[in-house]
């Protein structure tokens, strides 16, 4: 009886054990299935994290890299040196291509060793687990983090192949000094791309992630060298490299990048700030999101032009002077900003004086006034008295402007001379005749958005405007009066090359009258033409001998500002110099900085450009005019200038101030006999 009961109990225990085992296995299978199902339902995790945003010049050279606190690039696996890939596989996860995210043998071995030593002496994380941790988790030591890491690792293995996981791991692992990924590390430590590394360099980098601070070759070169040797020998033992390659790598003297190279290449920092602000608006993202989004921004910057603008500025401005400079160049056909200076030293002051500062334009504002006048009946020959004048205003006050240095013609001068000599009396008379409100409205047509008071002195540029606004206005003259939209960005892509934004073709919308625009443009070439000299020299006389091409332009000055803005059919450049705190400019040399920077720079950037002249439209006609009388010039007129008029407004009578020269008259008759015309001696 007792024996039967024992057999019964044994059978029951056996059944209980079997049922328990089946239950445990069922529960394990259900749990495993649930984990796999949950991981599958969650879908493929993102393979990327923060990445650097890279800025390119117009010729697609890198001019700057933007990032947050972390320096990151993403490069495809095929663009990573094979020895660097193998070094990581050898040191971090030799069975990477054989497991499903977890190395059970390695885990058990690690557990055993840790128990024996009563401490964590060995880890068991695979490359997949490390990648999951790098992407999604913190490095805190907790069971919660371990469980999440396992889930992320499982999802990575479930949805991506091994090469894709390895690529992601190599692009996200930390190498110290704020650098994430092999590309960032390669550039930081060796100033080269990850695909260009030698075996010695690759093994050095592979040793850093084990302890980014302890094994930094910058801070702890001895530790880093010891770790490198260990990796090289391990690679040789595993037949990853040959004995000869091992010996060569051990002997190679590594050349680490200099400190300035590690800080990264940053060309035209003021320009880059403008690019980042423009890109933020175009993509509707914050500046922080833009810096870490891995974008590729293709800009309009011409590196050679930027270099020449910076060099010319440094050369012309005395090192002992505290005066500031702002300058930029625009392509008048497209509106592309090709070069930009916001100040003399970005590190000392990142304030962008070309865009952010508003300064009085001085006489550079006069072309807007004369466009309004020419568009309303005035001509280059229109005469007005240049003499000390007091203007009684509607409010009862008296306004008495003066010419530079108190010089006056005390006689009539033509509009052509008034612009070339920058006569203030002529400008104020013109402004009052056509009404200051007309000038305000005209300036808006030229793209001036700053607040402009409708007062007589506006003709002399007493309103505060930006360098960019003025360059844009002059650019509209250079392109024949078409709309102009200054910009710094041509295209933006994401890290994989998908185009997120691309600028379309420039607008051909006609804003200004093309005939009037050309007449004014040609009048603005007069600042360099000494035939327009009268009671003073033309304002460009001091730089005329430096110029080899046809330019149109205008100088401007106030007590605190000095300007030179001018253009060819290919390039518009505006230069401003002055003190930040509106300190008066008193040194004679400082009064010439703007025009000399402009002249040297424009000549430099035009050296490799084809020579082009301003092309007259069909609605204008050219005559030889005596600039003093505004009449048709004859052989007795010592000063005569080819001047353009809108057809039907050109002078019809000859100058009576001068007596014709008989000898020259005979030459003219001979020309007519030879079939020559006025166009031959005008130069067309």
Automatic annotation (TrEMBL):
One of its GO terms (biological process) is proteolysis. Its main location: membrane. GO terms for molecular function: penicillin binding; peptidoglycan glycosyltransferase activity; serine-type D-Ala-D-Ala carboxypeptidase activity. GO terms for cellular component: outer membrane-bounded periplasmic space; plasma membrane. The keyword Cell wall biogenesis/degradation applies. Residues 63-235 form the Glycosyl transferase family domain. It catalyses: Preferential cleavage: (Ac)2-L-Lys-D-Ala-|-D-Ala. Also transpeptidation of peptidyl-alanyl moieties that are N-acyl substituents of D-alanine; [GlcNAc-(1->4)-Mur2Ac(oyl-L-Ala-gamma-D-Glu-L-Lys-D-Ala-D-Ala)](n)-di-trans,octa-cis-undecaprenyl diphosphate + beta-D-GlcNAc-(1->4)-Mur2Ac(oyl-L-Ala-gamma-D-Glu-L-Lys-D-Ala-D-Ala)-di-trans,octa-cis-undecaprenyl diphosphate = [GlcNAc-(1->4)-Mur2Ac(oyl-L-Ala-gamma-D-Glu-L-Lys-D-Ala-D-Ala)](n+1)-di-trans,octa-cis-undecaprenyl diphosphate + di-trans,octa-cis-undecaprenyl diphosphate + H(+). It is found in: Cell membrane. It comes from the Bacteria. Keywords: Carboxypeptidase, Cell membrane, Cell shape, Cell wall biogenesis/degradation, Glycosyltransferase, Hydrolase, Membrane, Multifunctional enzyme, Peptidoglycan synthesis, Protease, Transferase, Transmembrane, Transmembrane helix. Residues 327-602 form the Penicillin-binding protein transpeptidase domain. InterPro entries: Beta-lactam/transpept-like, Glyco_trans_51, Glycosyltr_51/Transpeptidase, Lysozyme-like_dom_sf, PBP_transglycosylase, PCN-bd_Tpept. The chain crosses the membrane at residues 16-41. In the C-terminal section; belongs to the transpeptidase family. This is Penicillin-binding protein, 1A family.
